[in-house]
Design a protein that fits this description.
The protein is of the alpha+beta class. It is built from seven helices and four strands; from the N terminus they run E-H-E-E-H-E-H-H-H-H-H.
């Protein structure tokens, strides 16, 4: 099979000169803004945006968040030799194809555990990634019940994962959901985090638990 190379050139372009794609279906919550800002400020640009030419303008396919966050910067852009229909295919499939990859939590756990950073924003980002991808528990449990606690030394992260921005060590529990419930729960947690101005899933869950206990009748003779 012969694969065509559709990259015309790599060009440095002022980000504000790029046109956001009006068909872009990806939205960027605050936690992603914060994470991207941390990486850009601490490492810089390490990958190119992707665009194609349409009626004399460069229209984005990938890189909308970076373009939005650094409008005055000259950024690396891969310019593709594709038409609008082909660009739509790339726009629809670029991120979902990446998301289809299987995750190995233990490998990610080891990777995160080997990263040291004194920057609070990077440490918060690593914590978010750790929670989002369930890397907080090294064990992979088969035939799990719908929800259970992992009472195991592997769930103690004090020596294996960066502490949070406040310098506090972590402990973890692992909860299993089926795929549909997981998507619903994670979506709700991130929505609540946005609304409450919280940075991590752990903070959202803690606020939910404390709020529920404060308004419940548990331990007060209720039915």
């Amino acid at each position: 099979m012969q694969i065509k190379n559709r990259v015309k050139e790599l060009r440095q372009i002022k980000a504000s000169e790029l046109i956001p794609n009006d068909k872009n279906w990806r939205k960027h919550p605050k936690w992603q803004h914060d994470g991207m800002r941390a990486v850009l400020e601490n490492i810089g640009y390490a990958g190119a945006l992707i665009a194609y030419e349409n009626e004399g303008q460069l229209v984005l396919i990938d890189g909308h968040l970076r373009q939005e966050m650094t409008p005055d910067e000259e950024v690396p852009v891969l310019i593709l030799d594709v038409n609008e229909q082909e660009a739509d295919i790339l726009l629809a499939t670029y991120d979902p194809l990446t998301a289809m990859a299987n995750e190995e939590g233990s490998v990610l756990h080891e990777l995160l555990g080997g990263i040291e950073s004194q920057n609070d924003d990077i440490r918060t980002l690593l914590q978010d990634i750790n929670e989002r991808y369930s890397a907080s528990a090294v064990m992979e449990v088969e035939n799990a019940t719908s929800a259970f606690y992992l009472d195991n030394q592997n769930a103690t992260l004090n020596n294996n994962i960066p502490v949070n921005a406040a310098g506090k060590p972590h402990k973890a529990f692992l909860v299993h959901f089926d795929e549909e419930d997981h998507a619903e729960v994670m979506g709700a947690l991130f929505t609540l985090g946005e609304a409450w101005g919280l940075d991590t899933v752990a903070e959202v869950m803690l606020k939910m638990v404390r709020g529920t206990l404060a308004t419940s009748t548990v331990g007060e003779g209720g039915d």
